[in-house]
UniProtKB/TrEMBL annotation:
Listed name of the protein: Uncharacterized protein
Highest classification ranks of the organism: Bacteria, Bacillati, Actinomycetota, Actinomycetes, Pseudonocardiales
Protein species of origin: Actinomycetospora rhizophila
Amino acid sequence: MDPELVRHVAASTGLPGEVAARVVADVVAYYSETTEEFVRRRHRELQARDRRNAEIWTVIADELAHRPVAPGEVSERRLRRIVYG
């Protein structure tokens, strides 16, 4: 973990250093998912909310495009292949 980032988060939020370190670690862990892991997790979450696949693919593609390290444009076909093999 980058100590400079932890210092920045602590200074900009007023959080104690150890809490800022946990926050940074949580954010890094969240974004460390591979594209495939992210797609499968979000598909399960959205299905659990009774969303239909047609809507799910659009939501996931949009979310992927806005991630800090976006995988580029992901087609609906690729999303289906990630989820269903």
